[in-house]
Structures are given as structure tokens and as C-alpha cells.
Design goal:
The chain has 401 residues and is an alpha/beta fold. It is 40% helix and 12% strand. It has helices spanning 15-28, 47-58, 71-85, 100-111, 126-134, 154-160, 183-194, 220-223, 256-269, 275-286, 290-310, 348-358, 383-398, and strands at 34-35, 94-97, 117-122, 138-143, 165-170, 200-204, 231-236, 249-253, 326-327, 361-362, 364-365, 375-378. The chain is globular, with a radius of gyration of 21 Å.
Length: 401
């Protein structure tokens, strides 16, 4: 008899985490690996944020925290939502968790019954579908095609909704494509949702501050206030403030019933987010915000650099995204070829595995995100690493026959 629970049968290990681990294994052997697989900022956590945690520790703020977040942090989150998104939430409408992933996990455990359908615009972050499965729901991919800028088209959303649909996930700017919806495009999605009042909406806004070329971020509850009580708006400090290791995410909704259910689950699967992390998050949210635009400008330079390099590689096609720090090149022009090392490239999985084994560049296959033949590159690393990585990718593709 297996000791593993049945609920894990259809839950897989994250492909991006697996590729990052593969890169570490090669590096441990003394091989110089260019890792472009991890969605983690290479910037340091801002000094004033670290200092806030240090001060909190010295003051003795090291006891059990409130399960759903300290009053001070909830107040800072409320101010953030008002300042950045023109959304009003009080403390009872906000829950703090140990990272954005836990927010989504809590929400699905709190609301999903067996057979509930959750619409996931695809390509999508690798964990969405697995979290839904874990909660007993049924993930339903809604394709967002390259020809549409990898954005969710209203007609595709409309066609996917059924009487069993419980949630729609939104993630724009998107992981893995970097696509983001304009206010007009988001309003069109909102109009569809107004026609289907039984469907809740979870919007993952973790890349909110990573947008380029004067693009203006918007979130659906702001665009369409009539959806306020049906939207769960999720965000965090990991990406914008380079705090991935601090582990703090938060969510808010106009529905107190929904937030009470999420808070209940949150209290059962954790003892609350670390007090020092909460103190640091207050400093991040209330402190100087200039660094957000400064770092976004650096990401934009990196994006443009990689696109310029890869656009010269025969067999690749690279869409220019509005945000996040990912590129999602189309590698269909290389299907059917054979790498210099003798690997037949029949899928994007073949491509990324041959690339890491033969030229030691770690990326992630498009199949992991639900759409092939693509691969994801993270440009959340230095220009030096991107220069080397692009050169190796170009050589790898050039040597194919």
C-alpha cells in the first residue's frame, strides 16, 4: 500500500524549480551554468526593509503573530491598495499569508468542492493548475494565443464558462509571457464576468510594478467596481521589492464571507507569517517607492537586450511583452532538427534539455506552462549573464542540422 495520499497523484513538481535544481547540480560539478530559469529578482532587498526587521527583532517582536496579519501590516496593505489601485479595504477584508502561493492555496482550499471548474488563462504559472487539483477542483485552460499578444480574449473566456465554473484566474502581467492587459482589454473581460455572477475572480497582481514603455497597470476590481465583492485581489512583496525569501503575500476582497473562509484555512495551515517579515513588509509598502521605477527601468533594458539578441537567431521568434521579467520565445522553427550533441528536437522539452546539457543554459519548457512550442527565459539577472546566455543559445541553435 502506498503511503502517498491520492490527492498527490496528479500534482507534479514545479518545472521551473526542477530546472533550477538541474542547474545547481551541474554547477556543483564545476560546470559554469547560465541560469535563466528562476523568476527571482537579482536585486538585494532594500536596506531600509532589512533594517526594519532588525529593529523589530531587537525590540522583541518575536512572538506568535495574529493568524491573518498584524494590525500595523494590514493598515499598510490598506494604504497600498488605496494608493496604487484606488481600492478600499478594511482590516476584516485583508488576510496575510506566507507568500503569494499560500494565498492561492488558501483560497482554493476554502472554496473548491469536487468538480468545481477553475478557468486558467494559458500559458500560466506552473502552480495554478496543481493547486486547483490539490483542492479537488478541475483546472480548465483558456488559451491565450501569441497572435493575440498572449492575452485573454473575451470570446474565449465566454466560451469557457459553464454552470460548474467557480473561479477565473487572472495574472497580468503574466508568468510566463509577460503579457499585460490594458484598461480597455480588462474592461472587456469584466463585461463578460458581469454576465456570469456565479463566477469568482482571483487576480494575481504580483508583477504589478514591473511594466514598461509607459504601460499603465490596472486590476479588475478597480476597472469594474461592480465586481468588487466577487474579486480576490492577491499581491505581495516578493517580486517588486526583491523579498522572495521573506515569504509574504496578501489578499483582499469586498466579500467578508470569502475572507473569513480564507482566514480559517490560513489559520489551520500556518501559525501566521513571521513577525519580522511583517515588520519588513510594512517598511517596504510604506517606505520610498522610487526604487520600483528605477528597477523596472533596468528590467526594461534587459528585456530589450535579450529580444534584440534572440531576434537574430534563426528558428526563434520572440514576442515583446508589456511587463514581468520573462520572455516566451517561439521555437517552432527548430522542431525536427537535431542538436550538435545528437538530440532530436521534437518538442520544447527536448529543446530545453539539450540546451542545458550541451550548452549549460537553464530555461523552462513551454509545455510546463500549458502552451508549446515555446520556452521561458527569465531576465531577472545581470547583463553579463544575459550576454553569455544569449550567446550560448544562439550557438546552440546555429549548430542544429
Amino acid at each position: 500500500m502506498s503511503i502517498t495520499a491520492d490527492r498527490l497523484k496528479n500534482v507534479s513538481i514545479s518545472a521551473s524549480a526542477a530546472m533550477t535544481q538541474r542547474a545547481r547540480e551541474l554547477a556543483a560539478k564545476g560546470i559554469k551554468v547560465v541560469s535563466l530559469s528562476s523568476g527571482e529578482p537579482d536585486f538585494p532587498t532594500p536596506t531600509h526593509v532589512v533594517e526594519a526587521a532588525h529593529v523589530a527583532a531587537l525590540k522583541g517582536d518575536t512572538k506568535y503573530p495574529p493568524m491573518d496579519g498584524t494590525a500595523a501590516l494590514k493598515a499598510a496593505i490598506s494604504r497600498k491598495f488605496k494608493r496604487d489601485n484606488n481600492l478600499d479595504f478594511d482590516a476584516s477584508q485583508i488576510v496575510v499569508s506566507g507568500g503569494g502561493k499560500q494565498v492561492i492555496f488558501n483560497a482554493m482550499l476554502a472554496t473548491c468542492n469536487p468538480g468545481d471548474e477553475i478557468l486558467i488563462p494559458t500559458p500560466s504559472w506552473v502552480s495554478y493548475a496543481d493547486i486547483v487539483k490539490f483542492a479537488g477542483g478541475v483546472p480548465v485552460a483558456v488559451p491565450c494565443y501569441e497572435k493575440a499578444g498572449f492575452k485573454l480574449r473575451p470570446e474565449d473566456l465566454e466560451a469557457a464558462i459553464t454552470s460548474r465554473t467557480k473561479w477565473l484566474f487572472l495574472n497580468f502581467p503574466n508568468n510566463p509571457t509577460g503579457a499585460a492587459c490594458s484598461r480597455t482589454e480588462m474592461a472587456e473581460i469584466a463585461q463578460v464576468m458581469l454576465r456570469h455572477p456565479h463566477v469568482l475572480i482571483l487576480t494575481d497582481d504580483i508583477y504589478e510594478h514591473l511594466v514598461y514603455d509607459d504601460f499603465e497597470f490596472c486590476t479588475i476590481a478597480e476597472v469594474e467596481p461592480r465586481l468588487h465583492d466577487r474579486v480576490l485581489t492577491m499581491n505581495g512583496v516578493s517580486k517588486a521589492y526583491a523579498m522572495t525569501g521573506w515569504r509574504l503575500g496578501f489578499c483582499a476582497s469586498g466579500s467578508r464571507e470569502l475572507m473569513a473562509a480564507i482566514s480559517n484555512v490560513n489559520g489551520q495551515n500556518s501559525g501566521g507569517t513571521a513577525t519580522l517579515t511583517q515588520a519588513a513588509a510594512i517598511a517596504a509598502l510604506d517606505g520610498p517607492q522610487d526604487l520600483l521605477k528605477e528597477r523596472a527601468a533596468i528590467y526594461r533594458e534587459r528585456r530589450d537586450f535579450v529580444i534584440e539578441k534572440l531576434s537574430k537567431v534563426e528558428g526563434l521568434r520572440c514576442h515583446k511583452p508589456e511587463g514581468a521579467f520573462y520572455l516566451y520565445p517561439n521555437m517552432s522553427g527548430l522542431i525536427g532538427k537535431t542538436s550538435k550533441g545528437g538530440r532530436k528536437i521534437e518538442t520544447d522539452v527536448d529543446f530545453v534539455m539539450a540546451l542545458v546539457d550541451e550548452h549549460h543554459v537553464a530555461t523552462v519548457q513551454g509545455a510546463a506552462y500549458g502552451m508549446s512550442p515555446y520556452f521561458r527565459i527569465s531576465y531577472a539577472t545581470s547583463i553579463e549573464m544575459l550576454t553569455e546566455g544569449c550567446a550560448r543559445i544562439a550557438q546552440f541553435c546555429h549548430d542544429m542540422r
